[in-house]
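Chain and backbone:
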Amino acid sequence: MKKKVKKVVLAYSGGLDTSIIVPWLKENYKCAVVACVVDIGQVCDFDAIKKKAIKSGADKVYVIDRKKEFVEDYIIPMIKSGAIYEGKYLMGTSIARPLIAKTQIEIAKKEKADAVAHGATGKGNDQVRFELTYKALAPELKIIAPWREWDIRSRTQAMEYAAKHNIPITATKKKPYSEDDNIFHISHEGGILEDPENEPPEYIRSKIKPVEKTPNKPQYVSVGFVRGIPVSLNKEKMSPLHILEKLNKIGSLHGIGFVDMVENRLVGIKSRGVYETPGGTLLYIAHRELEEITLDRETMHFKFIIANKMAELIYYGMWFSPLREALSAFVEKTQENVTGEVKLKLFKGNVFPASKTSPNSLYQLSYATFEEEEVYSQKDAEGFINLYGLQLKILNQINKKKVR
């Protein structure tokens, strides 16, 4: 027997899953349903989504703009950390879930709701990301995860449920793709993509041009940073949000940011995902290039370790964990001198570093040059090598005396 629920706030996107969850909640929990739509830059008609939610049975709908917060408080800190999951995935979906869930909780408190719900499946990572945020910020709320409760077992059955309840959807049996869109990226899963042997069809692309259709001439773009935060594009000052919007268009034009990978989900399943992250890819690369000349060797090398752990924490839904917050504090310290400008050359899906400058650059030509200079004594290297290699010399001596 289901626990009595008076009012539930549903993370609503208007896609297949959340569209059928509204009537399902009404039928099975006999409760009021509040749809929470969070605008994080996804391409959609919010008025149409709001009308669709009401028509599906929602008692109330909130459409909340969180684009600025998403970029400044989630995306930029992630980029500064260098976090990339399994070396390929820039985590556009992973980093969005904590903010959506946080917004849900804010609405739940405002509406005095006693439950929250999401449309993530029992096989994926999003269920963890949503629910860990609920538990971290409002553990008193009941969590409803329909995919773990109802009898629907496939996207085909979900489409049949939608048809039965006269709910319009964009997914079809020929194109049953699961997509997640925001200002940072769009992901594609399911359908023909489930078999890694199949090349992603060109028609699934929505943000990035195929390389064959990109310009035959390269384009240069310059990104300026202050303490690791992007502040200008091609010398023009603008907000990080505006910079990302502009870079999305530029990156898309040149086919930048297309990733096809088989990743290891948190639940233990390998999953094939196709991602388009044009502007985000350019920001990651530009930031990384600037760190090359502004971070000392030991900090930079240790930050690589931090980046891998941060990627796991974000991917696993642990954004509001003490460890993530502690690592972010470390990252912020490393960014104190990451100020300067990076110029990138874009051509046929590739990004080439063209130049990088910083008032805090640790690169000193007088030391690095192969030409004649007076600041570095090459004779000093002999003593350094003798001391550094002493352990190997002693080890060799011991090995010769070993009794075989």
Notes: The mean pLDDT is 93. The chain is about 40% helix and 20% strand. The chain has three domains: 7-66+91-174, 181-357, 373-399. Residues 373-399 form one domain.
